[in-house]
UniProtKB/TrEMBL annotation:
Residues 106-158 form the PAC domain. Residues 347-603 form the EAL domain. This is Diguanylate cyclase/phosphodiesterase with PAS/PAC and GAF sensor(S). Residues 33-103 form the PAS domain. Residues 191-338 form the GGDEF domain. It comes from the Bacteria. SUPFAM superfamilies: EAL domain-like (SSF141868), Nucleotide cyclase (SSF55073), PYP-like sensor domain (PAS domain) (SSF55785).
Length: 614
């Protein structure tokens, strides 16, 4: 604005000066005025030209040389019109015509070629010089080089709409495009689009364990890989017209979330195919400095539906689908449907309720005995969290652990649970006259595991209750362990140093199964109950169990089978040499009192069998 004003003022001043010079040229002071005009034009930063009504250049100021590379002499020979960008020529002609006709120039912006071939942007204002009859005789044109200013403006505009970390379109630009597609679909429902929302699995763990600089590096690499897999040769399958879909728009919503807008995709299977391609594209391990990291993406897909009231609803739907993909173990794609919609609403209520639950003392711990298979002796209890919800009753951890993880509450809940479980063990020991050594097993989530407070929490709990570190085991799932192997090894070594045991939970269903056994210093593995469930009907499940047990024993790990429900399963597991088991066949998870009862009732161990310890 200010710049435009200043160019107008410059043009006006020159015009006045020139008019005086022209009209009063014969005046005795003419040489003074001419000199003054010359001084102003020769020294002005702007390019100043004088042209006659036919467009012939009468004068070019020296600034032309500096800004466009042409000397005034070269300029008067060439037609500067040819150097104007073809798209801008018409408006320049029009402005010149108008200035000649009316004597009033209008401010205009146009591109012109530098002698070196590059484009410069000029802001220009023409003013008419009239002869003694009042006719327009010449035009004084002031041209200002605004190339840098334009570039800065474009950069600012780019920055406003792009994410500085990855250079991708940001949330604002994404929402803008989403709105456009939404409005178009309202006019023409036959033009569908799909939204993919991806989130990096266990990103918080990476970020917290390796630092934010490493986290940033992972995000940049993810963005690069997603982009690369989108550009991969085969075009997106497109139904109907057979035309190619418009370019998909990849953007970063913030944090570890990326979105992809697929215009023209209305079929869930097309969206899924693209999602799978992206997941495959990021699957290779990546290096952050010397560290090898495996990052996976969970993808939620939502398709445009005529019923959507607001474009943001589609984003919410994709988010619900993405969360489901996470809840099902991550590294998956899920497509949003109505059931998920209900769940998404419930989820919001759940998170709000969870925040109150700690203060309102609504958490309970149930204890499930872990039994030594050959003696049937209880060697440990696994502490399992329950939420005694005021209106919904006892809620399974499957329904709230993920929400507690995401909202950051799990670390506090875990802190409470560890202390509580250790106190409970102490109480049983005091009350159970048999004096058998007993262990307690506690599950730790990804966030807890990556949190530096875990070790302090454990030490505090051990100190307060006086129980021996070897009586405490932590259970972590394979997927948590495999997310950041380096961190896992560090934390596990620390736990070993404390004397606390570690069990790999839900073993055999994750992807890194066997590798993890060598990689991580754990004491035992717990075979996932889906394998135990299938072992009778599915040969592969039974074979896998056998392999796991043999392998574990080879490297001195104990084996626990979870989810034993039948005598046949128990028998077969015993045959295979599995030492410990847990499941409804022995007992459901119990309240503390019932667990003590269970302990007291159990058959005393046969002498000489040697006390099995986890
Ligand atoms: P998990 O650690 O694998 O726990 C075993 C789950 O299997 C428990 O479900 C238990 O009730 C169930 N179960 C035990 N025996 C049988 C059986 O014979 N058949 C069948 N079908 N199921 C059996 P629960 O208590 O609902 O816990 C579910 C998961 O929630 C746990 O899986 C664990 O990953 C997580 N969890 C539970 N408590 C905590 C906790 O305090 N902290 C954290 N971070 N996670 C917890
Ligand atoms: Mg467990
Ligand atoms: Mg388990």
């Amino acid at each position: 604005m200010l710049e435009s004003l200043s160019i107008s003022l410059a043009a006006l001043a020159l015009l006045v000066l020139y008019q005086q010079y022209r009209i009063y040229g014969i005046h005795k002071d003419s040489s003074k005025r001419e000199e003054l005009f010359q001084i102003v034009t020769e020294n002005a930063a702007d390019m100043i030209a004088l042209v006659d009504v036919k467009g012939k250049r009468l004068y070019n100021s020296p600034a032309y040389k500096r800004i466009l590379g042409y000397s005034p002499a070269e300029l008067s020979e060439t037609s500067s019109f040819e150097q104007i960008h073809p798209d801008d020529r018409f408006q320049v002609l029009e402005a010149a015509r108008e200035a000649r006709a009316t004597g009033i120039g209008k401010r205009l912006e146009y591109r012109i070629r530098h002698k070196d071939g590059s484009w410069r942007v000029l802001e220009s204002l023409a003013s008419a010089v009239r002869d003694s009859k009042g006719e327009v005789a010449k035009l004084v044109i002031v041209n200002r080089d605004i190339t840098e200013r334009k570039r800065a403006e474009e950069q600012l505009e780019h920055n406003r709409l792009h994410d500085p970390l990855t250079g991708l379109p940001n949330r604002g630009l994404f929402l803008d495009r989403l709105h456009q597609l939404f409005l178009r679909a309202q006019r023409d429902p036959a033009q569908p689009y799909a939204l993919l929302l991806t989130n990096v699995d266990h990103f918080k763990v990476f970020n917290e364990s390796m630092g934010t600089a490493a986290g940033d590096e992972i995000l940049r690499e993810m963005a690069r890989r997603i982009g690369a897999s989108l550009r991969q040769a085969d075009t997106i399958a497109h139904h109907g017209s057979g035309e190619l879909s418009p370019e998909p728009m990849l953007s970063r919503l913030g944090g570890d979330e990326f979105t992809l807008l697929l215009d023209g995709v209305g079929d869930p299977s097309d969206a899924l195919r693209i999602a799978k391609r992206i997941q495959a594209g990021v699957a290779e391990p990546l290096f952050v400095g010397p560290r090898e990291v495996r990052a996976a993406l969970s993808v939620g897909i939502a398709l445009s539906v005529p019923g959507h009231g607001q474009p943001e609803e589609l984003l919410k739907d994709a988010d619900a689908a993405m969360r489901r993909a996470k809840a099902l173990g991550g590294s998956r794609c899920e497509v949003f449907d109505e059931v998920m919609h209900m769940r998404a609403e419930g989820r919001l209520r759940l998170e709000a309720d969870l925040r109150n639950a700690i203060a309102a003392r609504q958490f309970r711990i149930y204890y499930q005995p872990v039994v030594q298979l050959d003696t049937r002796r209880v060697v440990s209890f696994e502490a399992l969290l329950r939420w005694d919800h005021p209106t919904q009753g006892l809620i399974s951890p499957y329904r709230f652990i993920e929400a507690a993880e995401d909202s950051g509450l799990m670390v506090s809940i875990g802190h409470w649970l560890i202390l509580q479980a250790c106190r409970q063990l102490r109480e049983w020991e005091v009350n159970n006259a048999s004096g058998q050594p007993m262990n307690i097993t506690v599950n730790v989530s990804a966030r807890q595991f990556a949190d530096a407070r875990l070790a302090t929490d454990l030490q505090d709990a051990l100190r307060e209750t006086g129980i021996n570190p070897s009586q405490l085991q932590l259970e972590m799932t394979e997927s948590v362990a495999a997310a950041d192997p380096k961190l896992t090894v560090t934390v596990l070594s620390h736990l070993k140093h404390l004397g606390v045991g570690v069990v790999l939970d839900d073993f055999g269903v994750g992807s890194a199964s066997l590798r993890g056994l060598w990689q991580f210093p754990v004491d035992a593995l717990k075979i996932d109950r889906s394998l135990i469930r299938d072992m009778q009907s599915d040969r592969a499940a039974s074979d896998m169990i056998e392999v796991f047990i043999t392998l574990a024993h080879k490297i001195n790990l104990k084996v626990i089978a979870e989810g034993i429900e039948t005598a046949r399963q128990l028998e077969r597991l015993s045959e295979l040499g599995c030492e410990f088991g847990q499941g409804y066949y022995f007992s459901q998870p119990l309240e503390a009192k019932a667990a003590l009862q269970f302990l007291r009732q159990q058959v005393a161990p046969a002498r000489g069998t040697g006390a099995g310890s986890l």
